[in-house]
Amino acid sequence: MKKNLIRYALLPAALALATAFGGAAAFAEDSINVTNLSYRTGPFAATGTPIMNGQRDYMIMLNERDGGINGVKISYDECETGYNTEKGAECYEKTKASSIVTQPWSTGITLQVLPKSNVDKIPILAPGYGFSPMADGKVFQWAFNPPASYWDGASMILKNISEGNLESLKGKKVVLLHLDAPYGKEPIPLLQAYAEKYGFTFLPIPVGVKEMQNQSAQWLQIRRERPDFVLMWGWGAMNVGAVTEAAKTKFPMDKFIGIWWSSHDGDMKSVGEAGKGYRAISWSLPHSESPVMQDIKKYVLDAKKAEIGEGEFDWVFYQRGVLISMFTVEGIRAAQEHFDTKVVNAEQLRWGLENLKLDEARLKEIGMDGMIGPFSTSCSNHAGHAGAWMLQWDGAKFVKVSDLLQADQDMIAPLVETEAKKYADANAPWPINEECKM
Amino acid sequence: MLYRTVGQFKTSYHADHALFPVKQDAWLLGLILLLAFVVLPATANEFVFKALLIPVLIYALASLGLNILTGYAGQLSLGTGAFMGVGAYACYKLITIFPEMNIVVAIALSGFFSAAVGMAFGLPSLRIKGFYLAIATLAAQFFLVWLFEKWAWLYNYNSSGAIQVPTLTMFGIPVVGPNATAIVQYYFVLVVVCLITWFSINITRGRIGRIWKAVRDMDIAAELVGINLMKAKLSAFAVSSYIVGIAGALFVFLWRGAAEPVLFDIQLSFRVLFIVIIGGMGSILGNYLGAILIVALPVIISAVPRAFGLPIGSAMAEHLNTMIVGATIIGFLILEPHGLARLWAIAREKLIIWPFPH
Lengths: 438, 358
Known about the structure:
Chain A is an alpha/beta fold. Chain A has helices at residues 2-20, 22-28, 45-65, 85-95, 107-120, 150-161, 182-185, 188-198, 216-225, 237-248, 265-271, 291-301, 316-339, 346-354, 360-365, 409-426; strands at 31-38, 73-80, 102-103, 124-125, 143-144, 173-179, 201-207, 229-233, 256-258, 279-282, 357-358, 375-376, 389-393, 398-400.
């Protein structure tokens, strides 16, 4: 145990050393610096840690197995934010000179760094979170939210609960139980548009950050309103609180559906059997037998290059972290080929992230077949709008209960355009990519 | 030796009441100003500006505002974070309603909004004191943050519920927003902070400051000697909230660039209160010392393992950081319960008589 701890501590240290002794040394060794604004401390540490572990372990695995990306080592580092926007901004300032990509990891931090991205010219990668209009690549030239935005998620949930026929929602009542923060408010405009078009009643019920663990008032309201479905945009302690309350008030679990950040095994484990039947949409599917996961096991975990918690390997969040690192890596790969260079810089990576082509064949090649829906990005589409699956909690783990769902782009696209324009106008002068003709 | 006051004679009352009766103090201040205006900007990089210098100045300003209320007038307040929020939201609304408005004017005006709100929530101070008043200001804290969340007009109905700072220029140079350079923002904040500090030093030394101190030390006695308690307390709330509001506007516009309501939560109030307590109540200098300890020290400590290549992961460094800062705060408070400003005052006394203590 002690030995492992030392190893665990030594690894980031070695990475830190590499960065501490300046860019010159790093370039001489041909390495690419990727720093993640992690949160392994603070109130959301329990949810953050598996994601951060997954991201780190994919990078270590590539360095161990292939010697990096096309022979260039990845120097992966973390800057701890504790999910605190102030520390996040500090980390951004600290890493922007060395790291070729910023992963802000909180909607609050994303909002702070988003306006600076045009000036500092560093791509922001916010996989499956952040501001939904970021999908508009012409306006948000430096921001990427692959593989799907919150609006894609909301659309797919509605599609699934109506069993493909949105007309059937007419006259029904849908409640959105959401964290009262920018993150939780994200799906509201889209759900409102849906409610108007398909004639169902939509009722958002906010949960304040301070009331996350005690939602009795909200669930009392839900009981009184008798909704047909409850959707949840929850995070951290709020997920456990909501599922516990739902079980306590005997709310039918199969009518309770969460977004992908509400599909954390650790949260559900503490509820156990009581949460049986709860569903969550997810753009990632845990697949522990896939080649990539087996390689991580072989090169990283069994080789004791890094440590993770017991059982964490099979978790949705751990494997999602692996996929998130894959976006960066594939972006780097695309940029390396296009610019015919080994060590890509931030601007070249932006091109790479804009030209991700993750089709079935490519996913198979990198050993991630079936873990994520195929998608591609372009200069106008920074989200990729990949599909997602419905996962269901069976009392011990999440299992897939649907085919790959696709979001309704006819509903989302106009909203993306207006909201992106609104943002650009409010932050004028805001540069727009006129070269993009798509 | 260094602080010899021998030979510095005062020949008039005016000289005796001067801001710096000892010449060395003036030299020291000159040195610090030289450091702040010339040496630091010439040597600092963007990280130092954005993570150390600007936040220290803004937090020091906020704590200066609270110190006037708590340290000089003796009214305990836990609503500082919310009053900063009022300043920030007022500035945002002014800028978006009147896009042509100069940023200096907008920031100066936004202070009046927080002053008005501060006075309204200061009314209970006429009846209650101490901890009871702290609870009343706590109500302000919760109510205002709730208002920032619920009143969509305040954030122009943005779907994210957060306020974003647009680019604003002065004399053709971007001062606020993503295009502004750190050095410009630093000078802007520095000038504002210096002006308000100069104003605060004078107001606390003068008639109004003495009235506040009288109320703080014993309000019944103050009333008996003819001080109007209502005027004294409400003026303290107004001046304090004005400064706090300006600090809030600077906090969002010159530093953060975006803000969600939860930013102005009780943690911010506590942070500013800690700066006041550790820096020293009833002292202007203390705010700066406290802000350096609370705001800058964690940033500096977190850079230590990396600079020396110590084998510590970033999460572990963060845990250690919390422990070290906590221990330092307790250590300083045991060493000198009246704060860092008193520690400096004692050191100065010792320096004056050194090397012949008697």
